Amino acid sequence: MNAPQQLRRRLQRAWYRRRLRDPAYRFLLGDASPEQAVAIDCETTSLDAAACELIAVAAIPIEGDRLLMHSALELLIKPQTAMRTDAIAIHQLRAMDVAKGQNIDDALCALLEFIGPRPLVGYYIDFDLSVLNRYVRPILGIPLPNPTIDVSGMYFDRKIGRIPQRPVNLGFDHMLRELQLPVFRQHDPFNDALMAALCYVKLRHIRRL
User: For residue 66, what pLDDT band results from cuts at 50, 70 and 90?
Assistant: First the structure.
């Protein structure tokens, strides 16, 4: 992170501290080790980030080049509305699968405690953040303050220097295969978090593809 980015980050955190509604969550604005991050993925009742409900979250801690699989968090959440069939076809979670899930308040509390101030890593993570922030803002008074890292952006940055005039294929399968990483079934929250974590760890050590 360069000097202007560091200044912007400090100013943003100061603003978040003033706006934080519940001081019990001040730990989210602490300092994380530069070697730590959390890979995260969410599944929802529909594909509409502005209206869907959260039904599953997986989060895997990263420390340096190690994935702390034994410490991973997996949450199922019982929604209040019916799931759309197009979403079920993608993530294959049915109403009966999430019927015994946690309520959203308990799940959010567990998730926030788990991630702490660590950066969040994901594949096209903006969708996940949009959904999570709809739940988080009423509690915190602010969006999730964590730095975010999108592995598709990391991949693009390393690819574009070599082929600046050509479109870059950012498909998850394509990225994983080019990076010689395993491809698991997608739209399973744990698998997607795991694959994002693997991409992140490998891309950290690659300057150009």
Answer: very high
